[in-house]
Amino acid sequence: MKKTLKLLSVIMIAVLALSMVGCKAEKKRKTKKREKVSIEEIQKNTGDMLVISCSPQFPMTQEEYDASCYTMRVTYDGYVYIPNPVNSNGLKMKDDDFLKLYYFCTGNAEHSDFEGYSEDVCDGETYSFIYYDLEGGRHVIYAGYCYANDELQDILKTVSSYQVD
Predict the structure, then answer these.
(1) Domain tally, the chain
(2) Does residue 134 sit within a domain?
(3) How many C-beta atoms surround the C-beta of residue 28 within 10 A?
(4) Residue 165: inside a domain, yes or no?
(5) What is d(CA 80, CA 90) in angstroms, rounded to the nearest whole number?
(6) Residue 126 and residue 45 share a domain
(7) Do residue 66 and residue 134 come from a single domain?
(8) Is 81 inside a domain boundary?
(9) Structural domain boundaries, residue 8
């Protein structure tokens, strides 16, 4: 019995050690991927990278609804376009903000971390986050309410910080 417990303990320690090594390897792989990205190379591309659409979800007339919907666009060349009467040319993003959005998009392109995520809300605003890869492929990262999701809120805050008041 004691031999079995010792053997079981050794096996559990070995499994724990191997899983820790695997986690570190995965973390290093992601870090290396980020280090290889050249913002200058990414920003040589044209077209939309991330499109965030906002739609109100409460009772209103069609005219009010149409006036309340808006779309924010982030382009590969590093500009943010948010509809406003003052600046239709867009604003250039800081490199750190652009890379945050780029990693958010590419990290959720094949399999979104938000697949199956939802919030039990009955009114307010819903958002859709759509990533367009360099080949023009369309990837829906998330669509719905996102009040309680810190990562989605951070992406919204980052993009909307380039809005001209």
Answers:
(1) 2
(2) yes
(3) 10
(4) no
(5) 5
(6) yes
(7) yes
(8) yes
(9) 2-36
- Position 62 in a domain: yes
> Which of 20-34, 35-49, 78-92, 120-134 shows the lowest per-residue confidence on average (mean pLDDT)?
20-34
Say if CB 93 and CB 104 are below 8 A apart: no
Look up residue 19 and give its two tokens: 């899983």
Residue 5 burial (CB < 10 Å; 0-12/13-18/19+)? exposed
- pLDDT 10s digits, 110-163: 899 999 999 999 889 999 999 999 999 999 999 999 999 999 999 999 999 998
How far apart, in whole angstroms, are the C-alpha atoms of residue 36 and residue 25? Answer: 17
Phi, psi of 141 (to 5 degrees): -80, -45
Q: Which of these, 164, 159, 163, lies nearest to 50 by C-alpha position?
A: 159
Reported as a single tens digit per residue, the pLDDT across 59-100 is 888 998 888 899 999 999 999 999 876 667 889 999 999 999
Same domain for 140 and 104: yes
